[in-house]
Amino acid sequence: MTTRKATFYMLLFILIGKGLLAQNDTTLLKEVSVVKNRSSKFAVGSQIFNIDSTQLKSYQGQSLTEVLQFESGIYLKHYSPGNLASTSFRGGNASQTALTWNGFNINSPLNGIFDLSLFPVSAFDEVKVQPGASSALWGSGAVGGSIHLSHKPNFKPHFNVSIGSQVGSFGFHQENVGIDFGSKKLSHRLMVLNQFAENDFEYINPFTNVKETQRNNQVSTRALLSENNFSLNPKNLISLNWWYQQTDRNTPPTLFETTLANQTDDVSRLTAEWFHQLKKGELKIRGAWFSELQDYTNLTDDTSYFNNNQTFIGEAEFSRKLNAGFNLDLGLNQTSFLADVQSYKSEPIWQHRQSAFAGLSKSLFTKIDLSVMLRQEVIDQQTAPFTYTIGAAWKIHKGLSLKAQHSKVYRTPTLNDFYWAPGGNPNLESEEGNAQELSLIWQHAKKSWSWQVALSAFNRHIENWIIWQPQSGIWTPQNLLEVHSRGWETNSYLQWQKGKFGFRLNLITNYTVSTNEKASRANDESVGKQLIYTPIYSGTAGLEVKYSKITVRYNHSYTGYTYTTSDHSEWLDPYQLASLYIAYSPKWKKVGGSLFLRINNIWNEDFQVVRNRPMPGINYSIGINLNLKLNHQK
Asked: Fewer CB within 10 Å, N side or C side of the chain?
């Protein structure tokens, strides 16, 4: 262990000890959430969809890939089970989505993306999805949308132990143990997870019509998550969180490849926050350290590539209620990246980013909410594009509201874009543009019934879109494209509950047109055509039925034609996927839990998400979760 790490753990231990030794009684502090505060008060024109712990239960043992596929309507580019899965919001690419954990951006500084397959569902009890532009809230990269992961602290007296285990097709098994306890002054959660899968599924090779078995697709994951919240007194709260995960996975070849590879990811994430309640506002001082070690080995020719990157974040945010119903938010952020990447062929690279942001919101006549958020970033002493978000929400009638938002957005080039050797381009400019959205939402509840119908239209134009293409025989990134994205989305549900019986029906649909408006070379046939791996039509539906201790949930998704070449000469056919989840959840005085069966791709659809990368047919898993309540909440 390095001296720096040892010092950090010592400070962590001291802070935990101080929190446990505090003796004064205190009242419960309200929930502290950076995401909730910024999004609800200073981006009133956008929508946020909450995937809560109840919905996440049916995805235990899976990754965020499966959750977002059926619960959000986001298009996911998934290479194979256990391997890279990335997002596309409203016709954007993977690096134009921001992912936060406890309010900190955890996108990779190397390539600007994140891999959803590396995020086990068991690690979180709440996922928020915010479609649309939010660069002013979260900085570079939040162009198409953002995803927010968190866990709610529980300051009621309790002591719970959870144990889970499941097995499934293709050599899959997972085990997890969790401890969750708390009091008026303490909320602590510890989760340990182990998971393995062979992923040796069979498929029909479409070119030979011969049944083959997927090779070199094993995945092993171990994770430890510790979340600690200490209420020192009625006005001060300290939060300390540690997330460690180790993944060892093989990368399978495409249908035309023979190359076999292995990749290990060793990730540590540490965050700390001090929350201070003021008379008419609040102050947050926050810090984070992230470390990602990646070792890629080509097993065929026995060559290896090693990547090491670290992120250091410090942030201060002040919020205050002003006279006349105004709310003010001011913040400063310092983020530094340190990258030691073998492919850069240089000494370790530092990048420093400073940003200042300010928000103002106001409610008028209890029916109209207005907000503006401004943000300016400086990257290595170079001014980044100025961004803002202006939003309005109008409560037209009881349950009926109209929202509108206009935003200036940007994404800075990644470290790979700048420094990859050969091919990196230090002269790249930031992607930037404007985005608008308009939403009409009808929500109603009457006796046992509740429902929502939400319709959103969006428009976005991005200039200096970065693409990699060959130049003098070397692949290099350039600011070549202008992309116009527009379309509409719907998000609706119908719910009924009476006594022991209830059901919920939900439907999400997407119509997305995302076209290149600028030629990047002579005779460029991509102009005016849909971007690759961006289906025009997609949607998902779900039906959940509950009776007493039994839950049955059916999910169904549709993905339309997906072009895989920019001139539209090749494409992937539409496909439909479905899953079935059946659970029995008995409840006793001190023991709860569930016994469940999950069937994925229940109709055994033959499909590909990425060209020439086969996906599994019908597969199963069965599991059990136990929750031991050693001390009841009062």
From this structure: C
Residue 427 phi/psi, 5° resolution?
A: -100, 10
pLDDT in tens, 557-614: 999 999 999 999 999 999 999 999 999 999 888 899 999 999 999 999 999 999 999 9
Residue 324 has pLDDT above 90, yes or no: no
**107-154 tens-digit pLDDT:** 999 999 999 999 999 888 889 999 999 999 999 999 999 999 988 899
Reduced 3-state DSSP string for 197-255: ECCCCEEECCCCCCEEECCCCCEEEEEEEEEEEEEEECCEEEEEEEEEEEEEEEECCCC
Q: How far apart are CA 65 and CA 76, in angstroms?
A: 7
Indicate the average pLDDT of the chain: 91
What is the mean predicted confidence (pLDDT) over 246-256?
94
Q: Give the phi and the psi of residue 35 in degrees, each rounded to 5.
A: -65, -50
Characterize 485-501 residue by residue with b for buried, 16 or more Cβ atoms within 10 angstroms of its Cβ, and e for exposed: bbbbbebbbebeeeeee
H or E element in which residue 55 lies:
helix 53-56
The sign of the dihedral angle between the CA atoms of 321, 322, 325, 331 is negative
* Averaged pLDDT, 286-308: 93
Nearest-angstrom CA–CA distance, 68 and 76: 8
Residues 6+ apart with CB under 8 A from 381: none
Q: What are the CA-CA distances from residue 55 to residues 126, 189, 457 (Å)?
A: 9, 20, 26
Is residue 282 a contact partner of residue 38, using CB atoms and an 8 Å limit?
no
Of the listed ranges 166-180, 392-406, 580-594, the least confidently predicted one is 580-594
Task: Output the pLDDT for position 99.
Answer: 95
What pLDDT was estimated at residue 20? Answer: 36
Residues 6+ apart with CB under 8 A from 49: 72, 128, 129, 130, 131, 491
Contacts (Cβ under 8 Å, ≥6 apart) of 448? 496, 497, 498
pLDDT at 24: 38
The helix/strand/coil state of 277 is strand
Burial readout 215-251 (b: 16 or more C-beta within 10 A, e: otherwise): ebbbbebebebbbbbbbbeebbbbbbbbbbbebbbbb
Q: Do residues 360 and 136 make contact, with C-beta atoms less than 8 angstroms apart?
A: no
Residue 624: strand, helix, or coil: strand
Q: Which of 161, 154, 80, 160 is nearest to 115 (CA)?
A: 80
Smallest CA-to-CA distance from 321 within 329, 311, 313 is with: 329
Torsions phi, psi of 528, nearest 5?
80, 0
pLDDT of residue 82: 85
